[in-house]
Amino acid sequence: MSLKRKCFVTVAAVAVTVVVSGSPAWSAEGSGGPGRPEEMSRHDRGPGHDPVGPIRGALRDLDLSIEQREQIRTAFERHRDGDLQEVGRAFAAARRSLEQQIWNPVASEAEILEASNALADRARAFDRARRSLALDILPILTAEQQNELREKLKEMPGPGVGPGHRRMR
């Protein structure tokens, strides 16, 4: 894969992450969402604060029982306290590092490639952590709820689409 293609793929991944992190929180109780203290503002959580934002919104829209909501909340908390938060932060840091290299006028192609490869490594680790969360949540849902969730995920906007995205004029 050429450097130009890698940069395009990386920028697309960044755009998806930006769109996704702006999704509203899902919660059985209050606005804090599963495992997220209500008193924390969006600013306090920082960039990339909610690596599972789209799934929260999709789950929020499902007709879940109180027991299911509590089990899902517990799964979110377990993964947040596990590696998901740390891996998400490492991904966000690698993303910022690549962006800095791309816009650095003295950065070499090798430095940009190195930052791009580091981001790809962090993205794979982040995907594994998110998959682990999914494998904990899916058995909580009925087959019908799983199908509805997959349909909701298909309807989500792609990169560069949705709230918070502005076109350059």
What does this 3D model show about the protein?
It is a single chain. With 169 residues, the protein is mostly helical. 65% of the residues lie in helices and 0% in strands. It contains six helices and no strands. The protein is elongated, with a radius of gyration of 17 Å.
Name some characteristics of this structure.
169 residues, mainly alpha, 65% helix
Q: How can the largest sheet be summarized?
A: none
Distance between the termini: 31 Å
| Number of separate helices | 6
Dominant shape: elongated
Strand content: under 5%
Please tally the β strands and state the result.
Answer: 0
Mean pLDDT across the residues is: 75
Report the helical percentage.
Answer: 55-70%
Structural class: mainly alpha
Strand-and-helix sequence, N→C?
Answer: HHHHHH
Low-confidence stretches: 14-49
How do the helices and strands line up, and which of them pair or pack?
Elements: H1 3-21, H2 42-45, H3 53-60, H4 66-102, H5 109-137, H6 143-155
Helix pairs in contact: 1-5, 4-5
Can I get a quick summary?
The chain is mostly helical and 169 residues long. The protein is built from six helices and no strands. The two termini are 31 Å apart.
